[in-house]
Amino acid sequence: MNTKKEHGKIDWMITLVPLAIVIALCVLFFLAPEQSNAVLSQIRFFLGDTFGTYYLVIGLGIFILSLYIAGSKYGNIVFGEQNEKPKYSFFVWGSMMFTCGLAADILFYSFSEWVLYATDPHLTEMGSIQDWAGVYPLFHWSFIPWGFYLVLAVAFGFMLHVRKRNRQKYSEACRPILGKHTDGWVGRIIDLLAVFALLAGTATTFSVATPLMATIIGELFHVAVSRTVINIIILLITCAVYTYSLLHGFRGISKLANICIYMFFGLIAFVLLFGGETRYIIETGFSSLGRMIQNFVDLSTFTDPLRTSNFPQNWTIYYWAYWMVWCVAAPFFIGSISRGRTVRQTILGGYIFGVGSTLTSFIVLGNYSMGMQVTGKADFIAQYLESGDLYGMIVSIIKTMPGAPVIMVVVLLTMIAFYATSFDSIALTASCYSYHTLRDGEQPNKGIQFMWCILLILLPIALLFAESSMNNLQSVSIVAAFPIGAVIVMIAVSFMKDAKKYMENVEEKGQQEVDNVDNEK
User: Fold this and answer.
1) Mean pLDDT of the region 262-290
2) Which of 39, 99, 174, 261 could bond 421 through an S-S bridge, CB–CB 3.0 to 4.6 Å?
3) What is the CATH number of the domain that holds 497?
4) What family does the entry list (predicted)?
């Protein structure tokens, strides 16, 4: 490869500005951790409390739009040539989408999220732990979150495989409504916001889930868990596993995705069949799913205007923000691997595989421990309230399972595989932002990808060093999602406008062919 030509293609502004800002933030968190956390908390309160409805409206609106697109004529659009076949089988495609769209935090939250709700005042307002503690995890991880992914995935897939644009960036997806401004400062600002959102999502996920891995390692090897250990784990995962799949590109990611999905479903099957709570898991999961669907609109629009519990501000708004910032990477990846599929297949397939797998995780892993709680076999809520240690509580849950040490090893390996697949896809997407243009199928330089791998772990390490609370880790996503929410709406509107124009051209071309045939007769 011509080095000078390679350097000429690199977008140094999008590459160096985020690097400088992340380093500056890391220095602040290292030198003034308490003050940094306090400022972050204040900004989060202002955005989440004052503009909370903004996040909720975007979430519900995007989900409704996804159903409309799938059921409309736009659903027939093929990503690629009209008769092109999908590159990956449904299972491989779904595995890559699921494992790259979600990270190791799904296991952390699957085990523990019902406890967080069971200890929230809002649950007392709603009813009992049995009725509602299992409902909210399903709501916060299913249709609206995956709606964000899938609407943007079809927008990016259309941009890449149908319009064949060579700028794999958020700004390019807004071109149908921005026009020439895409190449100016407006486009640059959009891309910078996208990169910052990407870094925020990565920081939140790494900071939330990595301590669980450290706690499990501490339990297995009887070593004290410290921040240093956690940071070493992050570095080892990054240097070892990232490097493998970076060297092997999509092929490496697909292999890791397959390994991850088999371990993930193996873990779930074991807990379901041999954990001793099979009947409770199935019946409570079925009831919770029904209650979630029955109350879907109420849950989606609840704002707690009197602030009796601040539940939507603490949880629903956080989750919609969390998924918004992850939308910078995951939908690009889903759009890239969906070549040969239709818009309808991508959306409905994503809901079937992505939502189905997510719900299965929360129903089985969450209801296992909740069943032990409500039947009096264990008291995980008391343990959490006494210690405030969610990670230790999760280890206590795993200890109640048959073959607990083996289960801990499986959980650990599955989390590593989740990290590898999800963050490799993020690094790949972020690397694309470092280039002015990339042709369809062209991959960023390995060195650029590795640079982004390192950049993506700096902020999580700083947050862990500052001992940021769960509230402050959530704040990172809520702050970053505020501007990116508006960009997501712009991308959705741009796709609808461009897809309408494309369909009109296809219909016009088809009519011309019919007229030509008639004239020949």
Assistant:
1) 96
2) 99
3) 1.20.1740
4) Belongs to the BCCT transporter (TC 2.A.15) family.
